[in-house]
Design goal:
By secondary structure, this protein is α/β, with parallel strands linked by helices. The protein is built from 13 helices and 13 strands. Strands 3-10-11-7-6-5 form a six-stranded mixed β-sheet, with helices on both faces. The relative contact order is 0.15. It comes from Hebeloma cylindrosporum. GO terms for molecular function: pyruvate dehydrogenase (acetyl-transferring) activity. Keywords: Oxidoreductase, Pyruvate, Thiamine pyrophosphate.
């Protein structure tokens, strides 16, 4: 009866208010095949659900999207691989081989994989501590991530950074201070504009960081200087152990950029996620319209970190319902099978390949040695700028390069 009353009320309201009541679609399998070419090497034309996007101060992207069979299969393999890597990290942590903080992104694969497939290889990405998939997609390796978690020399930060501090030439981390990566991302995009690069920076943060003052300061500077910054709020509904509704007076995060236009996106449908990223990149780079704020509505299956069971502030039934009805990998699998792009057996083979790749990376990471004592003196300064001597904790403790 409550939902019926809501529908009746919506019919009486002006269009602008009705749009506020409607929520973005978060199902992973609502995209429809529109045109399928006889030659599957040619793009397919698909149509996204009408509620895949909600826009603020800008036009929403077109709902008609072209995708190729090869790209869909590649994204499926990438999502499976990223999930396998995170599941392996979970198992290693529970076996007490990984210590300290560890935040996993199981359930949010459509965001990291969709982002990578929608941007240029020279674009920059910076995020918070749920960073493992971004690090791999941005030129890292599964072995490098797992070895870093294990504290081994083969780690992407040579075993000295841990889960939250992993970098590549185009990925600026994994950052542990809540919201602090957002102004850094604005600074990176300032450098891109200063140099005249035809690229942009994607600065990601969670709904839990959305109320940080430095986030709004970065918004202001980016808009003031018309920087090519794409701010992305990964709204997975819970900041640590607090639901978004309890921490934010305005949970429409895509509207919180003041004069920065925003777009809310179905973050469980990878086709919608990729299309939104392409739209944002064109906005900032090709059209030079300045910053844009994206909000990906997504969901994490696990707790905030490995120390959080994730069921004290939400029910097990809620998590199970999301897993069974809105999983991004299962959604893409449904597209591929229903549209006749690959058989169930072909997809199972991709699953096996993903598992084998992760298993091999874990074995290699475990075989890597731990950092040596001398490694404490390295990677403190940018290579080539080190001083000839460096003091330790005591005056007599001096390291000479």
């Amino acid at each position: 009866m409550a939902s019926l009353a809501r529908v009746k009320l919506a019919r009486r309201l002006p269009t602008a208010l009705r749009l506020q009541i409607r929520s973005v679609q978060t199902s992973a399998d609502t995209t429809q095949l529109h045109e399928k070419p006889a030659d599957l090497s040619q793009p397919l034309l698909v149509r996204l659900h009408e509620d895949s996007f909600q826009s603020h101060l800008c036009d929403a992207p077109s709902l008609e999207v072209q995708v190729t069979r090869a790209e869909l299969l590649r994204m499926y393999k990438d999502m499976q691989t990223m999930r396998r890597m995170e599941m392996a990290s979970d198992a290693l942590y529970k076996a007490k081989l990984v210590r300290g903080f560890c935040h996993l992104a199981i359930g949010q694969e459509a965001v990291s994989v969709g982002l990578e497939h929608g941007i240029d290889k020279e674009d920059r990405v910076i995020t918070a501590y749920r960073c493992h998939p971004f690090a791999v997609m941005r030129g890292g390796s599964i072995k490098g991530v797992i070895a870093e978690l294990l504290g081994r020399q083969a780690g992407m930060s040579h075993g000295k950074g841990g889960s939250m501090h992993i970098f590549t030439p185009t990925f600026f981390g994994g950052n542990g201070i809540v919201g602090a990566q957002v102004p850094v991302g604005a600074g990176v995009s300032f450098a891109q504009k200063y140099r005249g690069d035809k690229n942009c920076t994607f600065a990601l943060y969670g709904d839990g960081a959305s109320n940080q003052g430095q986030v709004f300061e970065a918004f202001n500077m980016a808009k003031l200087w018309n920087l090519p910054t794409i701010f992305i709020c990964e709204n997975n509904k819970y900041g640590m152990g607090t639901s978004a509704a309890r921490s934010s007076s305005n949970t429409d995060y895509y509207t919180r950029g003041d004069r920065i236009p925003g777009l809310r996106v179905n973050g469980m449908d990878i086709i919608a996620a990729k299309h939104a990223v392409e739209y944002a990149r064109k906005w900032a780079v090709d059209d030079e319209k300045g910053p844009l704020l994206l909000e990906f509505v997504t969901y994490r299956y696990g707790g905030h970190s490995m120390s959080d069971p994730g069921t004290t502030y939400r029910t097990r039934e809620e998590v199970q319902r999301m897993r069974s009805t809105q999983d991004p990998i299962r959604g893409l699998q449904k597209y591929i099978e229903d549209w006749g792009l690959a058989s169930e057996q072909e997809l199972k083979q991709l699953d096996k390949e993903a598992k084998a790749e992760v298993d091999a990376a874990v074995a290699e990471a475990k075989a890597s040695p731990e950092p040596e004592l001398k490694d404490l003196w390295t990677d403190i300064y940018y290579k080539g700028t080190e001083p000839p001597k460096m003091r330790g904790r005591e005056r007599k403790e001096v390291h000479v390069y």
